[in-house]
What does this fold into?
Amino acid sequence: MRKHTSWPRIPGAAAAMLILGGCAEMADSLTQTWQDARGGIARAFSEGETSAEPDAAQTAKETQTAKETRARKPQDSVYRKALAARAKGARVEAFAGFLAAAENRHPAAAYETARAYLKGHGVKADRAKGMSWMARAARYGEARAQFFLAQAYSMGDGIEENPVKAAALFTQAAKQGHTKAQYALGETYASGRGVPENQAWAARWYGKAAHGGLVEAQYAYGLVHARGLGLPLDRTEGYRWLLLAARAGHERAEVVRGALKTKMAPEIVQLAEAWADRFQPKRKAPYADPPTVMYVQQVLNDLGYDAGPVDGQPGKRTHGAIGAFQNKSGQPRDPRISHQLVEGLLSEQAKAR
It folds into this structure.
């Protein structure tokens, strides 16, 4: 098994110099180096989105999920009691409760059982059992377990490195709103490790994590806009996200933000700062959130349809471009930004490569 070491980061001063210096060759070099040297969580893979219209298999899966949810309800009480016991320091009692609920397929309890075995809390440490329970928790749909295993598979940390499994697990967690998994997918598509490089799709995942409040993603999303990586260059939008990250103590974001500020009018800076003052993380967002809308607009424009400005606001031109794309691709006419539409755009991007 090979364990990765942390990769070096590109210093913020260098990023600022290359982004703002106007040298395309050096900026392109930064883009590739930045992608290769990302030191965040390891890479991930997206399986694509499900269809907006569920087929029979999907319906059956949802029915089974509903049945499992009803079956878990009696175990919720057991799980909550275990949490209360752990809060009081009664680790043995807590472990017993977690295990009892986990054996009845309670996802969160299975995750806590795994952690107890891995850390030796309330039970003798046993990595094999811990990883086995972590895998079960992931199968039960626990996003934290999916992300834990994805990291392990991605880095070869105590388990044989397997980018394919890491990819699938990161995706499962990201689709549930796990911000670090969303950031990991952005890392994956920006670098092209294990998947075809897709800067626009990377920007979508960075954006989701950034809107969710993840500081590292806010920094990455700021660079996406400031450099025009996968989306049109927009220094004002880049400044907003870099400012948020800088306010949270991100040193590289502060360096790039400071350099970017010198290129902006004072009134634009004031508006960006007012926006940052109002910002509130959104842990639960609709499917057609701004990062997804921007992805759709960007790809439609790239494919030759006129979706208008890439601004995250689906106006008449965006809806017109969606209709034109659906007519040409054979999709049913539907003005909504749906799973099916995005899946179709991803497929067209793949064909265009």
In short: The first helix runs from residue 12 to 20. The chain is about 65% helix and 0% strand. The chain has three domains: 12-39+198-278, 56-180, 290-352.
